[in-house]
Amino acid sequence: MKIALVDSGIGLLAAAAAIRRLRPDADLVVSCDPDGMPWGPRTPEDITAHALACARAAVAHRPDALVVACNTASVHALAHLRAEFEPALPVIGTVPAIKPAAAAGGVVAIWATSRTTGSAYQRGLIEEFGGAARVHEVACHGLAEAVERADRAAIAAAVASAAARTPADTTDVVLGCTHYELIDDLIAAALPGPARLHGSADAIAAQTLRRLTPATPPGDATLTVLHTGRPATLQPEALTYPQGELLTAARV
C-alpha cells in the first residue's frame, strides 16, 4: 500500500500522520513545493500548474491513491487532477469540515486563509452545509506561512489576532487550512471560550482507505519526500510538530 500526498508545504503532515495512525504499514510519498509556496496568492491557473507538477512527481512513484492535502489546491486544481489521473488512480481532495461543525446548530467560526475567507467556494459550502448554525468567517492573516516556518512568535501573534475576532460564544471552530491542524492545541488554548475544533485530516485518511481496493497489499511503512519534484528529507520545521515526529519513525 502506497499513498501519495500533495500540498504546497508541510500542511500535508496532518493527513499523512492520520493515515499512518490508521495504517502503520502504508508507504507514504509526500510531495510539496517549497520553491513555489505559498500557493494562495497565485492565480487559479498557476495553482493548478504547481499542484499538477507536484502530483506528477508523486505519481511517478506509483502510489495506490493520491491525496490533495491542501484546501487551496482542492478548490482550484482538484478537477484537473481527477481528469488526469482517475479512474486509474483515486484522487481524494480536502473539504473544510463545515458540515460536522454545523450539525448541532451552534455558533461556528471558520478559520481560513485570507484568500479563502469570503470566497465564493467557502460561501457555497456555508450555504450548503451551514444549516441552522450561525457561521462566522475568520481570516487568519499570515498563520499558514508562520506554521510553515515554525515561527512560534508569528504563530502566537496570528492565532491571537484570529481568536480576538472569533465570537465569544463560538461552539465549534473549523480549521479551514491543513496547516492549522498542526497547532490545534495552541488554537484551542487561545479561543475566548471552550469550543470543539474540526479538522479534515481524520476524514481524509478514512476516505483514502475507503477508496483503496480490498486487494491492495500492505506496504513497508517507508517515507519518500519530494520537494518541488526533487528527492529530499523532511525539513527541520516539520520535525517541530508531533505529526512530523510521527513520520520520522519510517524508513526514508
Explain what this protein looks like in three dimensions.
Helices cover 40% and strands 17% of the residues. With 252 residues, the protein is of the alpha/beta class. The protein has two domains: 2-94 and 202-247, Rossmann fold; 98-199, Rossmann fold. Helix 8 (184-190) links the parallel strand 7 (172-175) and strand 8 (196-198). Helix 6 (143-149) runs antiparallel to helix 7. The longest helix has 16 residues, at 44-59. The mean pLDDT is 93.
Number of DSSP strands? Answer: 10
* Main sheet: strands, sense, barrel: 6 strands, mixed
What are the segments in which pLDDT stays under 50 over at least 5 consecutive residues?
none
CATH architecture type of the largest domain: 3-Layer(aba) Sandwich
Structural descriptors:
252 residues; alpha/beta; Rossmann fold; 2 domains; 6-stranded mixed sheet; 4-stranded parallel sheet; 10 helices; 10 strands; globular; EC 5.1.1.3
Compact overview of the structure:
InterPro entries: Asp/Glu/hydantoin_racemase, Asp/Glu_race, Asp/Glu_racemase_AS_1. The protein has 252 residues and is an alpha/beta fold. It contains ten helices and ten strands.
